[in-house]
Amino acid sequence: METLEVKKDKTSKVKHKVQKLSGSAALLEVFLSEKVDTIFGYPGGAIMPIYDALYDYQQKLKHVLVRHEQGAIHAAQGYARVSGKTGIVFATSGPGATNLVTGLADAMIDSTPLVCITGQVYAHLLGTDAFQETDVINITTPVTKWNYQVTDATEIPSVLAKAFYLAASGRPGPVLIDITKNAQIQEFDFEEYVPCEHIRSYRPKPIVRKKYLEEAAKLINEAKKPFVIFGQGIILGRAENEFKKFLDKSGIPAAWTILGMSAIPTDHPLAVGMLGMHGNYGPNVLTNECDVLIAIGMRFDDRVTGRLDKYAKQAKVIHLDIDPAEIDKNVKATVPVWGDCKETLPLITQLIDKKTHSAWHQKFKDYQKQEDEKCIYPEMHPDTNVLSMGEVIDALNELTGGNAILVTDVGQHQMVTCRYAKYNESKSNITSGGLGTMGFALPAAIGAKFGAPEREVIAIAGDGGFQMTLQELGTIMQTDLNVKIIILNNQFLGMVRQWQELFNDRRYSFVDIQSPDFVELAKSYRIAGQKVTERSTLKKALKDMLECRGAYLLEIMVGKENNVFPMVPQGCSVSEIRLS
Amino acid sequence: MLKKEFTITVYTENQIGLLNRIAIIFSRRKINIDSMNTSPSEIEGIHRFTIVINETEDVVKKLCRQIEKQVEVLKAYFNQNDEIVWQELALYKVSTEQIVEKVKVERLLRKYGARAVVIRKDYTVFETTGHREETDGLLEALEPFGVIEFVRSARVAIINESSGFHEKLKEFEQTEPGEVVIENEYLDKKDEVFSM
Q: Closest Cα partner for A461 from A430, A426, A435?
C-alpha cells in the first residue's frame, strides 16, 4: 500500500491524500468513514477478495459469521432496528445473494436501512452462466430501494457513498451493491472519501408546507373525538420526543401499529393499545367512531384497516408521512402532511390548543374493560394446568420491568407478545411486520444484541418459526453472545391452525408440526436451557434464564389449541372485531 | 371510475436497470402497458419515457407516485389525450407488383399522408405517422393487397402545457430546492393539466 501526497488541482492549496487501494480495501475504507462497526456475512468464491481485505481490518470492523445468508440479513435488520444505524451484509454471488432475497423484501416493506454487498463473477463472465453467477440486480430490483452493479473499482467510493445515503435517508430501505470480482481486485487511486449528501433525482425530505399544517391544526382544534394512530415513522424519524409533546398538548388518545409499538412507553397515559387484526378492542372499534383520524408515520396496512370501504368513513383523515406514495394509497387523506414528522409534529404542536378529551378517552377505557373481562382475564388465568402464552409474557414483564428488547418471530406468539409486552424505551419491539417472515426472530435477536450490547435481548419464537433458522444457534455459540431465547411451543403452526379452526371447519391441514428436543439441541451448541411445562416453575425458569450470564434457551409448553383474541376476521370491518 | 387512455411522461437519469424498475411497477399490479418509448429529452443526459396505459385516473396517479419514488426518476406526469400532441409511426411492407397493378398508389399516399421509404422491384415500404386511427387506416387499405410486414412504434407525446424541463432541472440540481420541485404538486394542482 503506497501512500503519496499529490495536489489535486494546481491552483488549489488543499492536498488530497491518495492511496493505491484495491476495490476491496476501498470498500472497507468507506465503511470506516461511514462509521460501520459490524458486518454480518458469509464468505464464498466471488466475494473472496473482500474477505481477504477484511483480514487486515479485523481490529476495526467486527465480522459476524452466520450460518446462512438469510441469517446475516435478518441479523443486520435487528442491528439496524435497535441502533438506528445502517445494517451491513456480505454475501457471495449466486446462492449467497439469492438467500438474501427474503431479508431484502422484509427490510423493504418494514423500511429498514441496509447496505448489502454481494460478490459477483468477473465482469467478462457476466451473462455466460458462469459458476455461481445469477442476475442479482434483476432478482432484487423489486425488493430494494436501490441497487447497482459495480464492474470497475473506481466506482466504489461514489457508489457506496450513494448507497449509504439512500439506505438511511427519507424513508429508509435496503440497498444492494453487487461487485464483480475483477472490481474487488483492481487497484486504483483512492482519494479522500466524500459522503453523498445530494442526488438531484432524489428528494428524501420535502419542504414542510405551512398551508397543510394550518389545516391539520384547525381540524385537530375543532375535533370532538380525535384519534391518533402511529407507526414506525416516529421511530425511524427519531421523533419520539416530538410525538410525546404533541400528545401531551393535544390530549388525544393514541394507538400504535405493530411496528410503531415502543415509540412511546406502553404505559403512557394516552396510550390506548395496538391497532389491527389482533389489536385492542377500543382502538379498532373507535376508529369507526372518531371524527378526526391523525395517522402518523404509518401506511394503512390491510392488517390494520380490515375492510377498507368500511374503514373510518366518518372521519376526516390527517396523514403525516415522509413518503408521498403513501398518501392516498389506501385511505384518502383530507389533509396530507407530507414531511419528516420530526419537523412537522412540533409545528403542528405549536398550532394546536391544549386539551384533554377525557370523556372520549374514557370510551377507550370502557372498551378496554370489556376486553379485560372477556379476553385478557381468561388468557392470564386459564382454567387448565396448561400455560397460556399471555401468562408467559406477563411473567416476563414483571421480571424485565419492560426494559428488555423483545424480538419476535411470526404467528400467534408474536401477536400475544405485542398485545401484552411492556416497553419503556423506543426501538425495543423488533418484529417482522409487513412481510411476516417466520424465522426472523433468532437471527434478528443476534443482530439486535450486537446493535445494543448493553441491553437485554430476548428472542421469542414459536416452535415452527424457530425451526426455520435454528442453525443460527451456531452463530450464538461462536460469538459467545448473551441472547435469550424463549420458544413458546404449542406443537402446532398455531396461527394457521387458529384460522383452520375458525374458518376451515377444523380441517387441520399440515399444521401439526413436530420438534426436536430444543433444550438438547441448544446443549449441542453449548447453550444452556430448560423446558417448562408447569405454571409453578415458570417464574423460576424465567429468572434462571435472565440470570444466566450467557445465551439461554427456554422452551415453554403452552396450550395446543389456544387462540389469539380479539380478532378482526379477514374481510371484516375493524368495528366487527371479535372478542372470542 | 372509468378506464381511460393515459399517457405517462417520465423524466429520468440515464441508468442501466431503470427500465426494469419502471416496468415492474406496472407488471406487479398486472397492468398492461399499451406502448412504451424511451428516448432522449430536451436536455442532454436526461431520458424521457412515454408510457401509454388504459386505467382509471386513481390508479394512474398512484402509479406515477410509485414511479417518482424510484431514485433515478426526476418527475412523472400523466395526461389524457386532449392534453397532449402525440404521434406514432408505422411501416408497411407490401409487394410492389400488387401495389402497382391494383392500387392507385398516389391516391393512397395522399389520403394517408404516407410516403414510400423504399421502392424495390419485389417490395415497397410505406411509412406514415399519426394517431392510431390513421396508421390503422392505411393498414386496412393495404390489407386486401397483402401486407408482408407491419410494425408500429410506441407513442411519443408532447405535453401541451409543459414549458419543458430546463427550469425544473436547475431546481433539482440545487441542494436546497425551491418550491417548484419540492411542492406537493399533485395535491395543489389536482385539476390542472400539467399535474402529478
A: A430
